[in-house]
Structure to design on (198 residues):
């Protein structure tokens, strides 16, 4: 590990962040629940976090209070809030907001949905297919792809591969797999087996 922290995209990076931030997550979620917010949702991936709630007339004061609480709780775990990356988005003004690679959209019933978008899903697909076809695997890339797919699953629980074209699904079947997830899992197991025997 370098003095710059954990490499981006590795499966272990968000796992270690989750272990380190476990107490913070619990404390922050407890504070959010006490704040009388409409349907609050707190999500965090590594060091990026999003807090959303239904619009209310005094939402600006609620946000100020939230920011103060986040800063206070981050100090407890020896971290600070990056003010340059802190943004307030109002879905009453826009039906779509993109934050740290995640899209938050609002439907006609005012329900919020999160998605990573098609571009990242396609990127993961083609990188995984390219790796599968390599004779000598780049196992750092295998770990990155596993990490990216893990991120994808943490955001979208179901229907991740529904956006893939029939041709893309056929490519996976031609390689002997039911879906991309199983192919990526096999790439990872192949890596683990070669590490154990090598």
């Amino acid at each position: 590990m370098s003095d710059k922290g954990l490499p981006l995209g590795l499966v272990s990076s968000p796992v270690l962040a989750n272990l380190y931030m476990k107490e913070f997550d619990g404390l922050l979620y407890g504070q959010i629940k006490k704040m009388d917010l409409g349907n609050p949702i707190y999500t965090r991936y590594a060091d990026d976090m999003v807090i959303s709630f239904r619009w209310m007339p005094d939402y600006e004061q609620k946000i100020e209070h939230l920011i103060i609480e986040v800063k206070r709780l981050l100090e407890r775990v020896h971290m600070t809030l990056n003010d340059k990356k802190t943004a307030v988005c109002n879905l009453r003004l826009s039906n779509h907001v993109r934050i740290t690679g995640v899209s938050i959209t609002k439907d006609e019933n005012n329900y919020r949905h999160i998605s990573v978008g098609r571009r990242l899903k396609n990127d993961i697909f083609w990188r995984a297919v390219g790796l599968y076809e390599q004779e000598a695997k780049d196992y750092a890339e295998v770990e990155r792809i596993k990490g990216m797919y893990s991120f994808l699953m943490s955001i979208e629980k179901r229907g991740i591969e529904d956006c893939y074209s029939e041709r893309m699904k056929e490519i996976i079947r031609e390689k002997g797999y039911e879906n991309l997830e199983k192919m990526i899992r096999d790439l990872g197991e192949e890596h683990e087996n070669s590490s154990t025997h090598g």
Residues 89 and 97 are 7 Å apart (CA to CA). The chain has a mean pLDDT of 83. The longest helix spans residues 12-34.
